[in-house]
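Why show two proteins at once? Because comparison is the fastest way to build intuition. When a single record is shown, students tend to memorize it. When two are placed side by side, the eye starts asking what differs. So, the first record is below.
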Amino acid sequence: MPRHISSVLNIQKGAEKWTVLAQVVHRGHSQLTREVPPRRIMRFLLTDTEGTKVSVVTYEQHIKTFSKFLQPYQRYYVSNAIVVPADPTYRVGTYECSWILNYKTLIENYAEPVPPMLPCIFELTNFSDLHKYADSDNLCNIRGFVIHAFPIKQLDPDSISRDIIIVNEEKKLMLMTLWNEFEHDEGSKIADMISTAPLIIALRVKVTTFNTLSFTTRYSSGILISPPLPDELSLRQWFSLNKEEIRNLLDAKTYNDASYLLPPPNEEDIKAISNFQASFPVQKAAWVQGTVKLAYGFSKYWTTACANCHKIVNADIDWIIHCPSCKQQTEVELRARIPIIITDASSSIHCIISGEDAEKLIEFTPLQLKQAQEDGFQIDTELNDALKKYTVVCFLKSYETPFQGQLQRKNTVIKAYTAAELSDRPLPLELPENTQVFSELRSSSARHAETSSKDQLFTPSTKLVLEEIAGASSYKDSQTSATSGAKRSLEFPEDLPADTDPKQPTKAAEEFAKEPAKSYGPLANIKDSPAKKPKAKED
């Protein structure tokens, strides 16, 4: 009498003497559980012919037995596994159970020349929605073509990683970091196949704010390489038609461009500041909007940072360093680092804004900020006068750091847009009463008036100071050029806080103004080969 072949949905807790024709969607790594004491575990994802997915595990001595079977995308008869309620972390779709393979479980090959396309559907996240997942515990599934693989990074004797760049149908390039076993297994295979731009599906990966936005593998993640999909041919045709444009995006390093990774948000994506503050730690990053002013109490408004990943390093700007964050040999750059307060109708929030986003608000260069501090020139009033003109829409990251034995919450601006830059979008949230929004939603005559008003931003003495600082900057640049052979290659601590020394002497602007200033990859065959990418990241 022939066996009855059941569907996954018919196999419920306590079922016995059943058989399912199952196709392997994903074969995981042999890992240790996080319980005490830990156990060796291996996970699989299977689907039946109806497309119902089921999470499957096996433990300890059974791993060796079942790892000989259950190869990716092949089909097998699976009989008499133990059926238990699914772990929410690994539950897939509507099926509420998972299977445990043990010595009673029977696995049989299903003979066929070529396995069929995967019948199951994957719930994929659009890259344009990744900001909703940033730095949260909500993992996502994504699909894309791998167009570049960076070299392996040995972080310490027990930790390695590899960064890859993937692109999806939205033509968005994203960095993904494969850690340890993911690099050893999937990363090495992807690197070997990089000339073919392999299509991958990444399951349960985390979105981080490192490198503005990027992916990183977690303990529970899974990587499917070149899965047999019903729409694989159409995806390949799309990639072929857009190959040159994708190559240009790769050359432009858009995977490292904050404006590209975090374009202006939709109105419904902007949260009230009070709601963002209340949602921590469930949501640690979000778009907010408000007016800006300086947060007083700081004496230093600049920092030195890695020119590659922008992490703070304690180094001179003429040094060449091995960055402890991105693990790349790179130059050191000056960056503006300004403490600000953003206010909307619901609340206010203190945060740090850095780099180009800070410079477009304050109209000082980092070198001018450094020179002013070194010469004792107090510019708090000028900074605040510049900042308070603006209403901004910012993508904020909130995090906690230890301070005097307690956790202290801090906030950083990842990307900021001014009202002028969003002139084609209405500002959605109510602002504080009596707030004048500085916007460029005006006629050409108003724009001319604005240009004139900028000339009045600084007092005559302050403008003289800036002219002298600029002159000093030109002199310093010439001196640096003359001594550029004296470079250093050192390693430094990952992060240093901004100095706030209240004892540092300062001078009024008028007094100070009187003093003299002091791939390789699949796109390589299009035109020229892409430049080497120094970008890297950590989880």
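Second record. Ask yourself what differs from the first in the token line.
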Amino acid sequence: MIYLFLCIALTFGAEVDVNTFSNYIEVSQEHVHIEWLLDLDGQYINATSQSIFRVNSNKLKQIDLDIYQLNIIAVYMTSTGNVLKHNIINKGDQSLLQGDVLSIQLDRVYTRGEYINLNIKYNLDSKGARALGFLTKEQTYSKTVPYLFSQCEDNNCRSIIPLQDTPSIKIYFTATVLVKDPRINVFMTGNKLYNMKFKLLNNYENLQALTIYQFELNIKIPAYLIGIIAGEVVEKSTGNGTYVIAEPHFIDDYAQELSDLPMYMKEMQEYIGPYIWGDYKIVILPASFPFGGMEHPLLTFASPTIIVGDKSGVGTAIHEIAHSWVGNTVTGRNWANFWINEGFCVFLERKILSKLNGLDSVKLDAINGNSSAYTSMQTFGLDNSFSSMHPNTTNRNPDEATSRVPYEKGYQLLTYLETLIQEDPFQKFLRDYIENFKFQSIDEDQLYQFLLNWVRKNKQEDSQKIITEIQKVWKKWVYEPGLAPITIDVTTPLFTNANNLAKAWIDGKGEIPEQANDFLQYKPNQKSVFLQYLIDNYKDVETAVMTKIDEQYKLTFYKDQKTGYKWYRLILLVKYDQGLEGVHDFVSKVGVSSYLKVLYDLLGQNYNKQAYDWFDENKTFYHPVVVQAIEKILQKYPKKLIVE
């Protein structure tokens, strides 16, 4: 089947998605409507989906959809109710990695241009729905009602909806969500409707006791952008169509921290063009949320790690705002083209931050980002495709390839292109690119060809020189693992100062350097540079140095969790036992996947018992995606028997 897809895809010149089992080239999903009855206490959802498909082949006899651990009850025609035969094809060793196939036998042969309307009745629970994080009421601040949140990226939406779970397909999305407890508020991707628009698909006992929410999004999105939160949450306006959503206890503090959202939106629109999605809402989730942020349209998710108290962590909010143009409006066609979302997004984020914080600060962000990307490359292997911008995720869960690599190498490529094309023309290129590919899913070659044609048309005098330079590096930059073929200039005295201070601490062997108090004036990104120098030279960092640094700067139990994360990495590398309780506290309170994967890898190597004990202790706190990732990491470090 994949071979057939590949042949068809090559005919049209587009990359195939190797991480879907659906026959999305023969038939494409156009619209998905879901109806969910939530049981958050039982961590169970009674569900029905209603989909519209467009036929793209001449003889279509079946529809294959992606599913993961879903209990499929029935498939039937929307208009007649006629039940269709369905079969679940177990994918063997891929079943728990990427799921299985729901193969639906159609009632007749359909031809190109026809539409098919299907309903699927199914249910799901916390054991199988790896996209969902179910929190008990005891895990929330108020401890009154349970909480639910989702994380569908990369290919986890198939664990909550049977569909074509690929960024190659964009769908209109609508939803009806019913809850038994009126204290539970629900938000989903799309606009919340305040009048019943969609007829219920099922009959419910005691319907009048249920609270009903409905949502609608009239711009097509890929499945991974579907998101939901449900719990005791409220929203608060931050002005000009922007809102913050959180648990009631936190809402005022979070809204204050994010009070500049209207300014960020204004700056982004001035640079890249009009915002088309409507209101902008950002949810600060509980600490179990596995990422820094997630860009669902009209419902951005963000980790509480961005709330520091001085607005220094809000770069994540700007990054997620940028996704409204790159990622959500123009989307990478598959997970090998993830950099088309994230590289562009980092570029836009840093354009805005350079206006707000200055160019030197953004250079530090680029240095820190590159350091994180290189750490991932070392973990993957410098010759592994996961260390490239175009990872090969065949027969792999694409979550495994998630790292800073596509973010930073993508950013570096765009920054290099800007130096060739020049700043103002490059801004015009970005606007033209978004307009040209608006609402589409594309691959790197489509972007590449558009770029070359744009240069020919808009840089006529020196177009051939620019094109030659682009052609020299493009395929290397995208496909070759390891560092980018050209190093961009990010030199700044802020970097030198932080490195010199870190070196002085190492050289002092426990003596406090003369310039030690400089650290207290550093912004978080400069503190990160300081700590990265110590990490890179950890073999020279003595216990006495760690003790004095901690006494001087109070880094164990540090409030800024991004800074704390690097300190805890250093603790585990140096084997500074006195700081272990800080690491324990961190992995018990922070659910961010990128932090936990690195820390558990170091724990597995250097503190094997703590790795297994702390993971067992916190497994129910972590999102299912994170649990799977840590389990895979710990397989490298078998549990050691401790003899008392």
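One difference worth noting in the second protein: Residues 1-12 have pLDDT under 50 and may be disordered.
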